[in-house]
Amino acid sequence: MRYVLLDRITRLVPSEVAHGVKCVSLSDDIFVDHFPGHPVMPGALIVESLAQLGGVLVEATMRERGRNDLHALLTMVDRAKFRRMVRPGDKLELEARLITAREEGGQVRATASVDGQLAAEAELTFAFAEVKSEKLRARRREVLNVWLTGAAEEP
Question: Would you name the residues annotated as active-site residues?
Answer without folding.
Answer: 34
